[in-house]
Design brief:
The chain is α/β, with parallel strands linked by helices. The chain is built from 14 helices and 12 strands. It folds into 2 domains: 134 residues, Aspartate Aminotransferase, domain 1 (Alpha-Beta Complex); 241 residues, Type I PLP-dependent aspartate aminotransferase-like (Major domain) (Aspartate Aminotransferase, domain 2), CATH 3.40.640.10. Strand 5, helix 6 and strand 6 form a beta-alpha-beta unit. It is globular. The two termini are 37 Å apart.
Length: 388
């Protein structure tokens, strides 16, 4: 069976050049990068080169990049580290949006249980945060605002520059989770005017278990992990050299063809989206179609349970998702679609298609060809009347 992978927002296949580079490090550059001898310095040199590559991907200075275990740790480090660093001031208020990744939402919940006031900004059916909503939520006590650059379920891109300027006008910091944009579209920390930015290697054909947090020069964060003086005393623990090198290679590869690949994949995404809407009645795209990351579409299928459609597609060799991979295994409706104000049936009948480097027009056409029959069969089993 020919399989089609359309779940690149969950993870991407590791690029062959990344595997090769990591294998070399594991075999030859095994030294501890904190050691002063030859073996340690070889490992440190490889890590320094990777840091420069990752920094280049986001328009940053290498000294501002701290390697982490992934997007979740980066989000935690940004929010907890900034909040605790500001403990001596009166700024304790935290702001995020209702459609953030669980790494942000659950971090705010944990900090709220420790007495910090928090506010979640609502979004409408477009999935875009209204700048005026942030203006109204900000107070003189606000420490940090966290708004994701692009949503992992619907792909919408937020007006981060405008939000950052609004936050800064009230003296607050702005963190953005750019896990779903880095490597897909141009991300420039200076152009966005943010203070903190999170990325993860496995979203752009690098290895799992490694990510980075960009920290604006001069900004003080208290470390979440304490111990040795690794990462300029910002993140303790012996670095994952092989993973970091792999992330660096993946960053270089992504940066080299980011505009070309974005154009190609967005054309495939549009072909898929238009084909599904045309071939399958009772379908609608969730969220605004622009601005979005080029590879993502989230489509609602009326009178269908998303889990059933996902399984049926998998049996046909097509891998898709009902939303965030970090929420899989639950029967809860999508918190993103729920936050956008959609009725319960729509929060539970939507499928995310996220394309990637290996996808072709043939892949898209195959999905469009098999979907109508699958949907008709599932609808005949449910016999639920169409909803407006």
């Amino acid at each position: 069976m020919q399989r089609v992978y359309l779940d690149h927002n969950a993870t991407t296949p590791v690029h062959a050049a990344v595997v090769e580079a990591m294998t070399k490090v594991l075999r030859e550059d095994f030294g501890n990068p904190s050691s002063v001898h030859h073996f340690g310095q070889r490992a440190k040199s490889a890590m320094d080169q990777a840091r420069s590559s990752v920094a280049s991907l986001i328009g940053a200075d290498p000294s501002e990049v701290v390697f982490t275990s992934g997007g979740t740790e980066s989000d935690n480090f940004a929010i907890r580290g900034a909040a605790e660093a500001l403990d001596a001031t009166r700024r304790r208020h935290l702001i995020a949006t209702t459609i953030e990744h669980e790494a942000v939402l659950n971090t705010l919940k944990a900090l709220a249980r420790r007495g910090r006031p928090t506010t979640l900004l609502r979004v409408d059916g477009t999935g875009i945060v209204a700048p005026d909503a942030l203006k109204e939520a900000l107070t003189d006590d606000t420490a940090i605002v966290s708004v994701m650059h692009a949503n992992n379920e619907i792909g919408t891109i937020q007006p981060i520059l405008e939000l950052a300027r609004i936050a800064h006008d009230r003296g607050a910091l702005l963190h953005t989770d750019a896990v779903q944009t880095a490597g897909k579209v141009t991300v420039d920390v200076k152009a966005l005017e943010v203070d903190l930015l999170s990325i993860s290697a496995h979203k752009f054909y690098g290895p799992k278990g490694v990510g980075a947090l960009w920290i604006r020069r001069g900004l003080r964060l208290l470390p979440v992990l304490t111990g040795g003086k690794h990462e300029r005393s910002r993140r303790a623990g012996t670095e994952n050299v092989a993973g970091i090198v792999g992330m660096g290679v993946a960053a270089t590869l992504a940066a080299a063809k980011i505009d070309e690949e974005a154009k190609r994949i967005s054309a495939l995404r549009d072909r898929l989206e238009e084909g599904v809407l045309r071939a399958v009645p009772g379908t609608i795209v969730n969220g605004t179609r622009s601005p979005r990351v080029p590879n993502t579409t989230n489509i609602s299928f009326d009178r269908i349970e998303a889990e059933s459609l996902l399984i049926a597609l998998d049996l046909e060799g097509v891998a898709v998702s009902t939303g965030s991979a970090c929420s899989s295994g639950t029967l809860e409706p999508s918190h993103v679609l729920k936050a956008m104000g959609f009725p319960p049936h729509r929060t539970q009948n939507s499928i995310r298609f996220s394309l990637g480097a290996a996808n072709t027009e043939a892949d898209v056409d195959r999905v469009v060809a098999i979907l109508p029959g699958i949907v008709d069969k599932l609808r005949s089993l449910t016999r639920v009347p169409a909803r407006a």
